[in-house]
Amino acid sequence: MAENIVETVKLTKVYRKGKLEIIALRDVNFEISKGDIGCVMGPSGSGKTTLLNTIGGLDKPTKGKVLVNGVDITQLNESQLASYRLEKIGFIFQFYNLFPVLTAFENVELPLILAKKPKRERKNKVRQLLETVGMTERTHHKPDELSGGEQQRIAIARALANDPALILADEPTGDLDSENATMFMNLVRKLNQDYAQTFLIVTHDPLVVKECRQIYMIRDGRLEKSDG
Amino acid sequence: MSAIAMTWRNLSRRKLRVGLTVAGIAVGVALILVLLSLVAGIDAQVRTSIRALGGADIIVYNATITNPREAFLLGSSAVLNESTVETVAKLPNVHAVSPQLTEVVVVNETLAPVWGIDVRTFNETAGGLNMIDGKMIGENDNNSAVLGKSLFDLFNMSIGQSILIRARPPHHNNNATLTVVGVYETGVFLTDRGLYIPITVAQNLTDSFGFVTSILVKADSPDNVEAVSSEIASLFPGMRVLTLSNVVAQASQLLNTLTMFFGTLGIVALVAGSFGVVNTMIISIMERTREIGTLKAIGAKNSTVLKIFILEALLLGCLGGGIGIIVGGASSYLISEFSVRILPAVPVGQRITANVSPMLTPSNIVLSFVLGLVTGVLAGIYPAWRAARMKPVEALRHG
After folding, report:
1. Is B163 in the same domain as B215?
2. What's the angle, vertex CA A9, arms to CA A7 and CA A10, rounded to 5?
3. Contact in structure between B212 and B76 (CB atoms under 8 Å)
4. pLDDT, average across residues A45-57
5. pLDDT given for residue B356 in this prediction
6. pLDDT at position B67, please?
7. How deeply is B270 buried, as exposed, middle or buried, from its count of CB atoms within 10 A (0-12, 13-18, 19+)?
8. What does the buried/exposed string (b/e) look like for B18-53 if buried means 16 or more CB atoms within 10 Å of the residue's CB?
9. In this complex, do B298 and A78 lie within 8 Å of one another by their Cβ atoms?
10. What is the pLDDT at residue B167?
């Protein structure tokens, strides 16, 4: 059996909105192993993004554990969580979230700077990553000079910068046309095949779902495994 | 990519807003620099005034001539005569009196201020000069001169050499050749850049026989200085009578007025400027909420986010300080150019010395700049702290 990268134990998240109590996650037990491409589907407001954010160390659960290599990250303080996100997780967003003042190269370089990597190493790594995502020719372009598909590929390169154990993507094709969405998923598949890169993708795009090996559904905070 | 380059690019996104914010700080810095320059100028002036007194208690001179430009327009007319000197000498409680004739002359083709003195009474009244080489002019010696250190060094002279002194128009045909017998040093720029010669030589040069420009007076006791000075003032209403204490009083009054004016304006401007920084930064942080969320998501610590925004405030302060010292420096320069009209002249008893004019010193420039910087950083702390504390999930959800 492949090693688990992340395992959640009875993960529960409750939001309070005034008197109203919204349960985003109910006792969710979930695991993802190395080399998997998992996807989480569900209606909006069902708790998909909350699951992703909790695994990514952006949000704290009300109850339960998130075990990463046996360590419960829900017990980490803010600074330790930042290090966890930096070293173990890569994030991809629906609207790419590239920094508009930085070039493609600099956007990819940023996580390496945060990880205090030496300049030469950064330069080589960024070049290699831009080549992997097929964006070498756009090295010195700013995000507003790139198409949505191109921006999302830069975002993938950025997510890969510190060789994360897991890449979390929240509706990554939500803002792309089908051609670019296909291109995005081809890249995901290639990274998965060549480097055994693990992905967890929140989506409702059938183009994405068909590439995934593990498919989960969330409804009212409950997670169910779907057999596709 | 450096952190500063990134900050700079982030600031460049909002040129107008950043420009206005920077201008706010710059105004404060400029006002403070002008103030500091004026204070430095007055300080230098006071030193010169005190130096003009030498060891004397009182200096008397004509009140209508207070600056070199005016003196130039009026030619070199000496304004007191020797009978005034005698009258003053006969007043009660006066220990000694010494006449001076001050002029600008051409020494070896270079303009320099010259003090014509009566050596015997000068020594008695002002306590002589601080000689660092050679000796003072002899009491009945009409062929010698002593040079200030800067002038002496400028000519690269040695003791015993001669200098040629020529008067300026309309007396430009008059000249005198004197032997340099000594070098003095006072620490006052203008004095050290000039020379002392016998008063008769000075009077011959300017065709002002029997006239002097100022009178130095020594009272028989420090307790009688005020009495003697008011006596002189009442006898000669057209004369200005200056004592050490009223030089200082005059200067400190001027200092107070200027400090009140520029200091208050400067501080108000800086406080307003700092509100501008707070405002600009808070708006910028609100606009960039999602970027802050992303930054945290990819692994930036709160302290890193804090540093990024503090750096931005620092850069605002830096720009404000930089532009402020340029504007303040230029204003100081303009004020000193037109100081004759703008500021009251503080007479120093010598026609040579100038008006109160701002003096730019490196330490004041640095101080004003740092003030701008500190304003920026202090104002940036709160917004930066807010950015650092944002919850990443909420920040990412932000449109």
Report:
1. yes
2. 145
3. no
4. 89
5. 62
6. 43
7. buried
8. beebbbbbbbbbbbbbbbbbbbbbbebbbbbbebbb
9. no
10. 87
A171 touches chain B (CB under 8 A): no
Of the partner residues A106, A109, A111, the one whose CB lies closest to the CB of residue B299 = A111
* Topology (CATH level 3) of domain A34-61+75-226: Rossmann fold (3.40.50)
Cβ of A99 and B298 within 8 Å?
Answer: no
Half-sphere exposure of B88 (CA within 13 A, CB side): 31
Residues B255 and B215 placed together within one structural domain of the fold: no
Q: Is A62 on the interface with B (CB under 8 A)?
A: no
- Give residues with Cβ within 8 angstroms of B117, minimum separation 6: B98, B99, B100, B196, B197, B198, B199
Contact check, Cβ <8 Å, A111/B291: no
Q: Compute the average pLDDT of residues B3-31.
A: 88
Contact assessment for residue A47 and residue A13, using Cβ atoms and an 8 Å cutoff: yes
> Binning pLDDT at 50, 70 and 90, where does residue B353 land?
very low
pLDDT value for B1: 60
For chain A, domain boundaries: 34-61+75-226
**pLDDT tens per residue, range B304-313:** 999 999 999 9
**Across A33-44, average pLDDT:** 90
pLDDT at B352 over 60: no
Q: Which residue of B has its CA nearest to A86?
A: B299
Which of A59, A102, A110 is opposite residue B298, by nearest beta carbon?
Answer: A110
The count of domains in chain B is: 2
Distance CA B262, CA B275 (A): 20
In terms of domains, do B263 and B378 share one?
Answer: yes
Its domain, for residue B306, covers: 3-47+249-397
pLDDT of residue B20: 92
Cβ of A114 within 8 Å of Cβ of B296? The answer is no
B87 in a structural domain: yes
pLDDT number for residue A225: 83
The verdict on a CB contact (< 8 Å) between A110 and B9 is no
Residues of A in contact with B302 (CB under 8 A): 78-79, 82
pLDDT tens, B96-121? 999 988 888 888 888 888 889 999 99
- At residue A227, the pLDDT reads 63
Residue the block writes with tokens 């950015």:
B387
In a domain, B159, yes or no: yes
Does A86 reach chain B within 8 Å, measured CB to CB?
yes
Determine whether the interchain pair B9/A114 forms a contact, defined as Cβ–Cβ distance below 8 Å: no
With CA atoms as reference, the chain B residue closest to A116 would be B300
Average pLDDT, chain A: 91
The amino acid at residue A96 is Y
Residue B211 lies in a domain: yes
